[in-house]
Design goal:
Elements lengths: L9 E11 L5 E11 L3 E5 L6 H9 L6 E5 L6 E4 L11 H5 L1 H5 L4 H14 L15 H13 L5 E5 L7 H18 L2 E5 L3 H7 L2 E5 L6 E6 L14 H18 L1
Parallel strand pairs: 3-7, 3-8, 5-6, 6-7
Antiparallel strand pairs: 1-2, 1-4, 8-9
Helix pairs in contact: 4-5, 7-8
The chain binds adenosine-5'-triphosphate and magnesium ion (MG).
Protein name: ABC transporter ATP-binding protein
Pfam families: ABC_tran
GO molecular function: ATP binding; ATP hydrolysis activity
């Protein structure tokens, strides 16, 4: 029932990736997944099923206990967390440059790349503001800009929009798709919101409760670029109902 066929010219290959933490918690059962370059994949599943663990393994932040992750070295990875984790004493532009400083990117290039990233997320004009003077949506935009300034080939996001109200969330989904369309990075996106997963993705991966494994992969048939009207079509609702039923089934 699991469709784990490799798409043509897979860029990322997870082979039997499993994780048991040192305290004995078995977070992930062996997971196989292949992703094509430029693909957008979302991970959906019950709380504690290992979504963040899998994302961190792909990001190289956590070692798998067994199995292999194949991803070309030159594919720079950027990670966006649920909490924007901004430095409150730094202005917006200096927050946007932070990761470039840590990477030792020369100053002139830092300024240029951070400023381009801020423009991309609609924060031009707020360079000298402090995080405390931004709304929640703007703080998340800044967190996205900070990661985009790295010019990643692989963009990993862990519930980045979950703390936002519905309207802000939908507008950030549209912005993210627009930026993804122009930058061409490959994305893995973790969310609890199945409509968000469907709206954004080529494929939605549904995971089982812990130890997480891939229960089912939904191919999302809607063409890109996607527009907000898609969310109110009967086809979108029907697919939503199907994914919801699958989630209920796996959570049982
Ligand atoms: N460092 C760790 N040490 C021990 N156990 C851990 C560690 N990190 C995560 N776990 C456990 O592994 C399991 C999977 O955690 P993970 O954070 O990947 O789940 P998740 O699917 O992202 O959940 P949520 O949807 O609530 O964010 C959980 O049972 C969690 O308690
Ligand atoms: Mg998580």
């Amino acid at each position: 029932m699991t469709d784990q066929k490799a798409p043509p010219a897979a860029l990322l290959h997870l082979r039997a990736v499993a994780k048991t933490f040192p305290n004995g918690t078995e977070a992930l059962a062996p997971v196989d997944l292949a992703m094509a370059g430029g693909e957008f994949v979302s991970l959906l599943g019950p709380s504690g099923c290992g979504k963040s663990t899998l994302l961190r393994i792909i990001a190289g932040l956590t070692e798998p206990s067994s199995g292999t992750v194949e991803l070309p070295d030159e594919h720079r990875r950027a990670f966006v967390f649920q909490d924007p984790t901004l430095l409150p004493w730094r202005t917006v532009d200096r927050n946007a440059r932070l990761l470039l400083e840590l990477e030792g990117v020369p100053k002139a290039e830092r300024l240029e790349r951070a400023s381009a990233a801020l423009k991309m997320v609609g924060l031009a004009g707020f360079e000298k503001s402090y995080p405390r003077n931004l709304s929640g949506g703007m703080r998340m935009r800044l967190s996205l800009a900070r990661a985009l300034a790295l010019r990643p080939k692989f963009f990993l996001m862990d519930e980045p929009f979950s703390a936002l109200d519905e309207i802000t969330r939908e507008s950030l989904q549209d912005e993210l798709l627009r930026i993804w369309g122009s930058e061409g990075f490959t994305s893995v996106f973790v969310t609890h919101n199945l409509y968000e997963a469907i709206y954004l993705s080529h494929r939605v991966v549904v995971m089982s409760p812990r130890p997480g494994r891939i229960e089912r992969i939904f191919e999302i048939p809607f063409e890109y670029p996607r527009s907000p009207e898609l969310r109110s079509t009967p086809e979108f609702s029907a697919l939503g109902a199907e994914v919801a039923a699958c989630l209920r089934e796996v959570s049982r």
